[in-house]
Amino acid sequence: MPKSCRVCFSAFVAQKPPVSFPPIAALPTGLVDVSCSARDDAVTVVWTERGGPPVVQSTAPAGYGTRLVERSITSALRGSIQCDWAEDGLVVTLKIDPERLAV
């Protein structure tokens, strides 16, 4: 994976939309599942949080880190990012152009 892609993924993990504090994985019932699949037209990464407090989407404007991640995913990786603010946990889906991941 090219360095620019590694930076985008690192930024996503560091800045993914925060739902609760403490982090969900630190809770006794908290679970974070990250799955990946590759198809002809996209590499899909799904980040799923479960076992935390009820999730509510923030009404505040997106912060710098969130905007940086969104721009990185859409421009550097030619992809998309979608957040599903389900009450039982946040699900973030990244779709990435597989050609951008080639070395």
Helix-strand blueprint:
Layout: H1 3-15, E1 31-38, E2 43-50, H2 64-76, E3 80-86, E4 89-96
Antiparallel strand pairs: 1-2, 2-4, 3-4
Terminus-to-terminus distance = 5 Å
Helix content, binned percent: 25-40%
Mean pLDDT value: 79
Structural class: alpha+beta
**Residue ranges: pLDDT <50 for 5 or more in a row?**
none
CATH homologous superfamily heading? Histidine kinase-like ATPase, C-terminal domain
Sheet with most strands: strand arrangement: 1-2-4-3
Count of helical regions: 2
The shape is globular
Radius of gyration, taken over Cα atoms and rounded to an integer in Å = 14 Å
Q: What is the makeup of the main sheet?
A: 4 strands, antiparallel
SSE sequence, one letter per element: HEEHEE
Strand content: 25-35%
From the 3D structure, determine the CATH topology.
Heat Shock Protein 90
- The number of strands is 4
Q: Would you state the CATH class?
A: Alpha Beta
Which second-level CATH architecture applies?
2-Layer Sandwich
What do you see in this structure?
It is a single chain. With 103 residues, this protein is of the alpha+beta class. It has helices at residues 3-15, 64-76, and strands spanning 31-38, 43-50, 80-86, 89-96. 16% of the residues are buried. The protein starts with a helix and ends in a 7-residue tail after the last strand. Helices cover 25% and strands 30% of the residues. α1 packs antiparallel against α2 (64-76). The chain has a single domain (3-101), classed as Histidine kinase-like ATPase, C-terminal domain (Heat Shock Protein 90, 2-Layer Sandwich). A hairpin with a 2-residue loop joins β3 (80-86) and β4. The longest helix has 13 residues, at 3-15. The radius of gyration is 14 Å and the shape is globular. It contains two helices and four strands, in the order αββαββ. Strands 1-2-4-3 form a four-stranded antiparallel sheet, covered by helices on one side.
